[in-house]
Each structure stands twice: as structure tokens, then as C-alpha cells.
Design brief:
alpha/beta; about 775 residues; four-stranded antiparallel sheet; about 10% strand; single chain; eight-stranded mixed sheet; elongated
């Protein structure tokens, strides 16, 4: 259904409206609404891609074809010079392996110095491709350019600089991911030339590496040579100072140690041994003294026990004692042999005692000798220590001089070795990089990339189209849905009257060909139904269409109001011209009249009486004549016998001031009062409200007002302004009606009011193409 249903006339308090606004949900992203915006703005979406694709194709056809050759170089951080033999030298000769180093080498490849080598080698200054062609805007560019020619620069240098600039733009150096491989890409109009330049750039890069390393080596060798002479004299001076100081302080060195220190070491060892001997001798002597004082057997002395003589004497004593025992047992104690054996025992014991006494005396003597020797060594050691203490400060200074001489000697030897290595390296320098893949002649152009350019144009165009579509739809404030009309006006939206196809109207217009021959404008002022514009009677001629359904919905709203309130005069108006108010007024009046209700249709637009021109163009008496008492109402009213509708036309008025004054006069009030008593319903086709004041004056006299809004034509601001103009009679506004609604397009705004939703109920009048 193309209308809004309601049970009671519109009378909503302001408080309820405010509450509804406060409770309305916050705006959110509606994907379906976005889809509908893109569908209804498909022309706006499609225009930028088509334009950009066309421009892209023009560019592709007019652009210069370029071929790109690629030479791949390996920046090898582990590659060492051929003359370096040890690993430490290899590690020191190579640069770092971090990303910054590789990126630096990539920037070095496209540096001005290398490109100048290539330009000179290949003579690109004579190549037309690398000579800039003058443009129309060059003089203007030079005015605003800060890179003007340098004073004193020769033409050859300027030409070389321009060629280098062009080559730099045609070349691109990229690193392959995080590897050590670097691609040198060069573009040219000639495939062979592109390969030659790419390989020439790689060679120039290697030459630059070798030259830089040679210059660095030569500078280092010169500097080392200058340092070596000074270091050599410093070494000689420091070593002479050591020897002179040693001679002056008698610090003779033997096997790396001074003689005094060596003597102290030897005496210390001897003193330690003497102390041990003294301790042993004293121990023996003390033991002998204790045995002597105690009166014990001195034969238990350790030295006596270990003596061979005493051992023999004891053995002899034992043999004699045994013999004595044998003789005593055999001959008795008084036998001369026994006495003789006793004498032998006494002599043996005497010898043993004498030997022990001698050993005891020897222990005391040994103790005295050891103590004397220890005292002598201690005295000598003390004397040498005194000498060492006096020469300690001299030895500290000597060691300081030795360390300085050693440091000078080490530094000199290091510089000398490095100088020899550097001198040898001058004659052989190798680049730290090498070519992995030489550039080959490309077989296909690299630019312009047709699909890339077209794809970018399409992507950018679609993006711009989407943005423009949303922007245009956002800025488009024209009324397109019943909800929008209700929101802007604050009154109910009664119905959406569809646009009728031109072909449908043409079919209905064919009916009047036969009636035209019988029509006499002198006798019949009102056109017969067959001669009336088909759109003015479309609700009656096509009752099964959505157009007629919309008219009936407006009629239903009017009937509901008439049941509860005294409604006699209904004003059908619009905000601006050409919004379908006349078509709405005529069809609504005819629909009401068909119900048997006495209905009068008044053409209230005295300035532009479209209703009169459409239904009774030959009428000679109208509303102005009745109001001015020039004719009676019965003389001016025309009757449509097919519907029973009474029509009061408005003839053309040449005096404009009479029209304005009439709408504000009592005459028009008297005319309406006269008709109120004779008709059940009076429908007035009013002038537009915004440009003319006539419609506002008639609104003051109407019981209800129906506002016609042209679909996708009436701006929202105009509708809001119109409602402000009708604010004194706001309570009399029955509602709004959308006219000329294209149902096929309405589905992009309001699916449930569009043809997509209403197709199951009929298809008549759904195609667009005619104006109402």
C-alpha cells in the first residue's frame, strides 16, 4: 500500500514529539542503506571509473614505451682481499653485515659519482633519449625553480648534469628482501640500451669500490709511514734510557734478574738449610744433656745407637759375656779363665763408654758449628737485604723505563707490519661485491603496464565514485520517502502517488479522437471525459492501479476526519510550482464525487489556472466573476455528469492587483460561505505557498490542508520553510502526499513502498516516463 494508515486526525502534542525525539535511537551504520545508496546513485558511482579508465587508456596509448633491464649484484660482506691470509685480517677488512650497510651500498649505486661514470662511458650526453626536450612550460618553471644553472658552469657540465638527472629517474635500485642481493633496474626506450646501461652501472659501482679502497689504502700507507719514523726514534731513545739507568744504579741483570736479587735468593735458601741443621744439632745436643743429667744409660742416645763402632763393641761385649757364663758354669767363678774373661768385659765396657762420651762431645761440637754457620748466613743475608732496600726505588724507575720501552717497541712493530701490509695491498684491490646476474635484453616492455594502470584507474574511480555517491546522497535533501516527509513536516504522510508512464497515458488519449469531432466549445464549456487529459481522470479510468489506490487512501483519511469533525473546505496546495497539486486535487475530487458526496472543485490559482486549462479551457465565467458579483454561482459552475462533480473554473485575469486583494477580501469569504451550504465538500486547487501569498490567504479559510510534494524534487529546506509559513494553521494540515513517485527507483529508498513490494498486486502504471 502506498499510504500511511492512521485512526485519528493528526493532533499530537508538542511534549509527545519531544519525547519521541529524545527516545529515537542514535544513528548507526546501516549496510542495507549503504547498498541502496550505491544502487540509486549508480550513475554517480560509474562516472568516475569510466572517466579515469578513459584517461588511463589515452595515457597508455600516448605514453612512451619503456623496457627495463635488471642486473643483480651481490654485496658480499665476507669477501676479503686476496693478499690477506689470517682470519683476523679478513674480519677487519670487510664492512659490517647489518641492514644499514647494505642500504648504504644500494644508495651508493645510484649516486651521482657512479652515474657520471656511466654517462661519460656510454656518451649519453649525445643520446637524444637522455637529452631533455624543451617544453612549453619550461620558462615558467625556471622562474619558480631554485635549481638554476650555476654561474661559471660549462655547457658540457650542464649537459652531463641533465643526462645524469634523467638517468637517475630511469634507474631504480632495490634490495631483495633481507638478502645481500641488490637489483639495478634501468628503463630505456631501447631494450639493448637498457641492458648496456644496467651492466655499465654495475661495472662503475665496482670501479668506484676499487678506487675508494685504493685511495683509502694509499692515505693509510702515507700516514703509517709518517708515524713509523717518529716511533722508531722513540724506541731507540727509550731503550737507551733503560741501559743508562741500569748502569748508573749498578742494576746488572743475569737471566732477567739482577745480581743482588739472585744473591739474596741463594742466601735465603742456604739460611733456611742452616736453620734446619742447627735445629737438628740442638735436638741431639739437648737429648745428650738430658741423659747426662738424669744419670740414665747414655747408650740409649740415638747417635750412639746408630754408631757402627758401638754396635761392634756391644756385639763383642755380648760374646764375652756369653763366654764368661759358659766358663763360670764349667770352671767356677774363681778360675783364672773366668777372671780373664771378667777383665775383657771391663775393657769392652770401658771402650763403649769412651765411644759414647766421644759421640756426646761430637754432638755438642756439631751444634756449635751449625749455630755459627747460621749466624754467618744471617749476617750476610741482612747485609744483602740492606743493599736491596737501598736500590728498590731505582728498580721501580727501571721497570717503568722498561715498560715504556716495551710499549714503544710493540707499537713500532705493529705500525711497521701494518705499513708493509698496506704497501703490498696498494697494488691489488678487489671490490667487496660481484655480479650475480648480468642484465639481459628484455623482450617485453615494462611500461606502461596496461592492466596495472587500468586497475589503478578502476580502483581509484570506484573509490571516488563511492565517495561521491555518499556525498551527493548526503547533500541531496530532496524528499524521497514517506518517513522523510513525516520527519521534516511533522504531519502524517498520507500516500505516495506513483508516476504514470507516458505510453499508458498515450493509450488513454486515443479515446478522444472520435469525441473531438462531436465537441462544440460554444455549447459545452467543460471538456467531455474522452477529451480531458488522461492524467486528470486516471484514478477513475484505471481504478486497479496504484495511482488510484493512493488517491483512495487520501480520500479515506479525509473521510475519517469528516466523521469526527466538521470539514467542508479542503485546500490542496504545494510549496512550489509543478509539484502535481492540480492532478491530486482533480483526482481526489472525482474520487469523492463518485461516492455520491456533493463535491465542488474550485480552481483557486487565479494567476496560473492549470485546472481550468485542462478541464474547461473555453470557460468564460469563473471564481473572480462570482466574487465580484459579475455572475451568479450557477452560471459559473460546470457539472461533470460522469461523476457528478461540480467545477468552478478561474478565467484569465489581466489585473494582477485584483487577484491579491481578492484572496484577502470578504468577497472570497462570502463565496465560500455560499458554497458551504450547498456542497458537502469543497476542494480548492491553491497556488503554491512559497512564491505567492495567495495560497497562504486561502489556507486561513480552509478547514483542512493537503500539501503535495514532488518526489525527488521538493527540497527538505523548502518543506520546512513551507511548514513555517503554515504554522498559524498547523492544526488544520491533514497531511502530505508524495506525487510523481517513480516506484522502480523508490525501492532504493523505501523497499516496502516500491514496485518490488507491490508487484504481486498489480503492474499498471509502474513504469516511469510521464509528468503529472
Amino acid at each position: 500500500m502506498l499510504q500511511r494508515s492512521f485512526d485519528q486526525p493528526h493532533s499530537q502534542p508538542e511534549e509527545s514529539t519531544a519525547t519521541a525525539i529524545e527516545r529515537s535511537p542514535l544513528p548507526t551504520v546501516d549496510l542495507r542503506e549503504m547498498s541502496r545508496i550505491l544502487r540509486r546513485r549508480w550513475k554517480t558511482v560509474a562516472a568516475p571509473p569510466l572517466c579515469l579508465i578513459a584517461l588511463a587508456l589515452i595515457y597508455i596509448l600516448s605514453a612512451t614505451t619503456l623496457y627495463t633491464a635488471t642486473s643483480t649484484v651481490l654485496v658480499d660482506p665476507r669477501r676479503a682481499s686476496a693478499i690477506e691470509s689470517n682470519q683476523s685480517a679478513i674480519s677487519m677488512s670487510n664492512f659490517g653485515t647489518d641492514d644499514a650497510t647494505i642500504e648504504s651500498e644500494a644508495l651508493l649505486i645510484q649516486s651521482i659519482a657512479i652515474l657520471q661514470r656511466v654517462v661519460e662511458k656510454l656518451k649519453l650526453t649525445d643520446d637524444p633519449e637522455f637529452v631533455p626536450t624543451p617544453g612549453l612550460l619550461d620558462p615558467i618553471k625556471r622562474l619558480f625553480s631554485s635549481n638554476g644553472p650555476v654561474a661559471g658552469a660549462s655547457p658540457e657540465d650542464a649537459a652531463k648534469a641533465r643526462s645524469v638527472d634523467i638517468l637517475q629517474k630511469r634507474m631504480k635500485v632495490t634490495r631483495q628482501g633481507t638478502t645481500f642481493l641488490v637489483d639495478i633496474n634501468v628503463s630505456s626506450e631501447s631494450p639493448r640500451k637498457a641492458a648496456e646501461i644496467a651492466n655499465a652501472v654495475a661495472e662503475a659501482y665496482f670501479e668506484e669500490q676499487v678506487r675508494a679502497k685504493y685511495d683509502a689504502t694509499r692515505i693509510a700507507a702515507d700516514w703509517l709511514n709518517g708515524q713509523i719514523d717518529g716511533l722508531k726514534s722513540r724506541v731507540v731513545t727509550s731503550e737507551k734510557a733503560v741501559e743508562d739507568f741500569r748502569s748508573a744504579n749498578n742494576l746488572t741483570v743475569s737471566q732477567g734478574v739482577t745480581v743482588n736479587d739472585q744473591q739474596i735468593t741463594d742466601l735465603n735458601n742456604q739460611l733456611i738449610a742452616a736453620r734446619v741443621q742447627t735445629a737438628e744439632a740442638r735436638a741431639k745436643y739437648d737429648q745428650a744433656q738430658q741423659l747426662s743429667k738424669s744419670g740414665s744409660d747414655q747408650g740409649g742416645f740415638s747417635a750412639a745407637i746408630s754408631s757402627d763402632i758401638i754396635s761392634k763393641l756391644r756385639a763383642q761385649y755380648a760374646d764375652i759375656a756369653k763366654n764368661e757364663a759358659d766358663l763360670s758354669s764349667k770352671y767356677g767363678p774363681r778360675h783364672p779363665l773366668v777372671a780373664n774373661v771378667h777383665a775383657q768385659l771391663r775393657d769392652t765396657q770401658r771402650l763403649i763408654n769412651e765411644e759414647i762420651k766421644r759421640i756426646l762431645q761430637s754432638a755438642g761440637h756439631d751444634y756449635d758449628v751449625a749455630r755459627s754457620r747460621e749466624a754467618s748466613l744471617q749476617q750476610s743475608f741482612d747485609q744483602l737485604q740492606g743493599v736491596s732496600s737501598s736500590s728498590g726505588q731505582a728498580q721501580v724507575r727501571l721497570r717503568e723505563l722498561q715498560r715504556e720501552a716495551e710499549a714503544n717497541r710493540t707499537l713500532y712493530e705493529s705500525y711497521l707490519a701494518r705499513y708493509k701490509e698496506t704497501t703490498a695491498q696498494e697494488s691489488l684491490e678487489m671490490p667487496d661485491s660481484h655480479v650475480v646476474t648480468k642484465a639481459s635484453i628484455p623482450i617485453a616492455p615494462s611500461w606502461p603496464k596496461t592492466w596495472l594502470v587500468v586497475g589503478l584507474a578502476l580502483t581509484l574511480g570506484v573509490g571516488v565514485g563511492f565517495v561521491l555517491a555518499f556525498l551527493v546522497d548526503y547533500l541531496d535533501q530532496r524528499v524521497k520517502t514517506l518517513e522523510q516527509a513525516e520527519q521534516l513536516s511533522g504531519v502524517p504522510a498520507l500516500a505516495a502517488i506513483p508516476l504514470i508512464a507516458a505510453g499508458e497515458l498515450a493509450k488513454l488519449a486515443k479515446r478522444g479522437r472520435q469525441e473531438l469531432s462531436r465537441y462544440d466549445p460554444k455549447t459545452v464549456k467543460l471538456l467531455p471525459p474522452a477529451l480531458q487529459p488522461p492524467l486528470m481522470r486516471y484514478a477513475l479510468d484505471a481504478p486497479g492501479t496504484f495511482f488510484a489506490e493512493a488517491i483512495r487512501s487520501i480520500r479515506l483519511a479525509l473521510q475519517r476526519t469528516m466523521r469526527v469533525q466538521p470539514v467542508k473546505v479542503v485546500l490542496v496546495t504545494s510549496a512550489l510550482e509543478n509539484e502535481g497539486k492540480t492532478t491530486l486535487a482533480v483526482n481526489l475530487a472525482q474520487s469523492v464525487a463518485t461516492l455520491g458526496i456533493r463535491t465542488l472543485l474550485i480552481d483557486g490559482d487565479l494567476r496560473n489556472p492549470q485546472l481550468t486549462h485542462a478541464l474547461c479551457p473555453h470557460a468564460d465565467t469563473g471564481l473572480l466573476d462570482v466574487a465580484m458579483n459579475r455572475a451568479s454561482p450557477e452560471q459559473a459552475i460546470l457539472i461533470d455528469h460522469s461523476t457528478g462533480l461540480s467545477i468552478l473554473p478561474s478565467t484569465t485575469v489581466k489585473q494582477a492587483e485584483l487577484i491579491t486583494e481578492l484572496m484577502f477580501s470578504e468577497q472570497i469569504v462570502d463565496v465560500l460561505d455560499h458554497f458551504r451550504h450547498r456542497y458537502e465538500l469543497i476542494i480548492i486547487d491553491s497556488p503554491p505557498l512559497v512564491p505567492l501569498v495567495d495560497g497562504r490567504a486561502l489556507a486561513e479559510l480552509a478547514d483542512r490542508i493537503i500539501l503535495a510534494l514532488a518526489w525527488d524534487q521538493t527540497p527538505g529546506e523548502v518543506l520546512s520553510h513551507t511548514m513555517d509559513l503554515l504554522s498559524p494553521v498547523h492544526d488544520r494540515i491533514l497531511g502530505t502526499a508524495l506525487t510523481r513517485v517513480d516506484l522502480s527507483r523508490l525501492r532504493f529508498y523505501d523497499y516496502y513502498s516500491s514496485s518490488a513490494y507491490l508487484k504481486p498486486y498489480g503492474t499498471a502504471g509502474l513504469t516511469a516516463g510521464a509528468a503529472q
